[in-house]
Amino acid sequence: MAKQLSGAGLRGQVAGKTALSTVGKSGSGLTYRGYDVKELADKCQFEEVAHLILKGKLPNQQELDDYKAKLRSLRGLPTALKEVLERIPKDAHPMDVLRTGCSMLGNLETEESFDQQQDATDRMLACFPSIICYWYRFTHDGVKVDVETDDDTIGAHFLHLLHGEKPRELHEQVMNVSLILYAEHEFNASTFTARVCASTLSDMHSCVTGAIGSLRGPLHGGANEAAMDMIEKFDSPEHAEKEMMGMLERKEKIMGFGHAVYSDSDPRNEIIKQWSEKLSKDVGDTVLYPVSVRCEEVMWREKKLFCNADFFHASAYNFMGIPTKLFTPIFVMSRLTGWAAHVMEQRADNRIIRPSAEYTGEELRPVPAISER
Ligand SMILES: CC(=O)SCCNC(=O)CCNC(=O)[C@H](O)C(C)(C)COP(=O)(O)OP(=O)(O)OC[C@H]1O[C@@H](n2cnc3c(N)ncnc32)[C@H](O)[C@@H]1OP(=O)(O)O
Ligand SMILES: O=C([O-])CC(=O)C(=O)O
């Protein structure tokens, strides 16, 4: 059954056109340029999907090899950017670090004309994992990591920098799937932010910096981190059920559940849930995955609310040893493809986005003299 889309938050209103993705078109599906995300996650590498979203077609083998080689060559960070990262405190939120890193990159490698949009995007795709891990390892481990690894994929590059060793194949595979699942999602809040910015004919780094700010909040990308903060407090499924019932009674929002568009499921959930289960067995977990499953059961039974893409990402990332505060930056490393493709689409057929507001304030009145206020 399709969700009733109306009311506040521009819900259900068509705010523009896109050829990039469909969300919940038949209740629960997600497609990127006409391909089902489930099939893409099953058969492709993230770099193939990035090529599809950004350049309009799935690459052939030669195109994929060339694209990956290009991305590999762009992993290094300018000295001035490293210096800025070194000055950001350890207790900063990594999303703020990434926002600053993106903005600083825009100062050092400014997009001077829209002809450079693809190159500017590829540079960010290649070096966002470097930005986040360079800062994290410097501030947490006191090391200045060499960010120019020869890893085959963006997911492996990230894990390698984070853990200081090449990742296991299983972990590289999960990162690949995760990055595909997060890559694009029509007019969600952060993408809409990027498009509004693009509509003023601003530069790519400004559009992406703004989008990072929008993704950071717990009602959007920040939900994977918030979900982890919740589930790690539960030491058994029974404990989870008791606490969840209390939260529902107090009408608290439970992060990682519900969706603005999907009505009865988020197609990304069943995919990441399977990988979370596999990782749970791999690490011999007997708590976090069963706790997560119980949360899912309680929310559906009590509220008909389902897990969105974020919920099982929390346990999956945790099983791979990724610190919770880096969860949402991984979302950025992936969603950058969708944001940039939307910026390009907006630029190709632009009119400044400028809606109207219903005025609810005072009637026209005179300004009193300061002595009379
Ligand atoms: C990748 C992503 O960005 S996916 C989204 C990630 N965000 C989260 O997980 C945060 C938690 N979820 C939410 O806050 C919401 O479900 C949103 C923001 C995703 C969607 O918001 P909306 O479209 O306004 O939700 P919707 O209209 O379906 O809400 C219906 C009712 O369910 C409630 N509800 C929705 N989600 C939740 C939740 N996670 N926990 C508790 N109650 C909820 C709402 O409060 C609302 O109740 P009301 O009618 O009494 O006010
Ligand atoms: O579409 C939305 O509103 C949020 C979402 O799931 C996403 O951006 O992936």
The share of residues in helices is 55-70%
Distance between the termini: 56 Å
Count of discrete alpha- or pi-helical segments spanning 4 or more residues: 16
Ligand inventory reads: acetyl coenzyme *A, oxaloacetate ion
Biggest sheet strand order reads 1-2-3
Strand content: under 5%
Would you give an account of this structure?
The chain has 16 helices and three strands. By secondary structure, the protein is mainly alpha-helical. The protein folds into two domains: 23-219 and 324-348, Citrate Synthase, domain 1 (Orthogonal Bundle); 223-320, Cytochrome P450-Terp, domain 2 (Cytochrome p450-Terp, domain 2), CATH 1.10.230. Strands 1-2-3 form a three-stranded antiparallel beta sheet. The chain starts with 20 loop residues before the first strand and ends in a 25-residue tail after the last helix. The model has no long low-confidence stretch (mean pLDDT 97). Bound molecules: acetyl coenzyme *A (ACO) and oxaloacetate ion. Acetyl coenzyme *A (ACO) is lined by residues 219-221, 223, 253-260, 305, 308-310. Residues 219-221, 223, 253-260, 305, 308-310 line the site of acetyl coenzyme *A.
List its salient traits.
373 residues, mainly alpha, Citrate Synthase, domain 1, Cytochrome p450-Terp, domain 2, three-stranded antiparallel sheet, 16 helices, 3 strands, globular, binds acetyl coenzyme *A, binds oxaloacetate ion
List the helices and strands and how they pair.
Blueprint: E1 21-23, E2 30-32, E3 35-36, H1 37-43, H2 46-55, H3 61-72, H4 79-87, H5 94-108, H6 117-141, H7 154-163, H8 169-182, H9 189-198, H10 204-215, H11 223-231, H12 237-249, H13 267-283, H14 288-303, H15 311-319, H16 327-348
Antiparallel strand pairs: 1-2, 2-3
Helix pairs in contact: 1-8, 2-16, 4-5, 4-6, 5-6, 5-10, 6-7, 6-16, 7-8, 8-13, 8-16, 9-10, 9-16, 10-16, 11-15, 12-14, 13-15
The structure holds acetyl coenzyme *A (ACO) and oxaloacetate ion.
Oxaloacetate ion is lined by residues 23, 185, 188, 260-261, 308-309.
Family: Belongs to the citrate synthase family.
Pfam family, one: Citrate_synt
GO molecular function, one term: 2-methylcitrate synthase activity
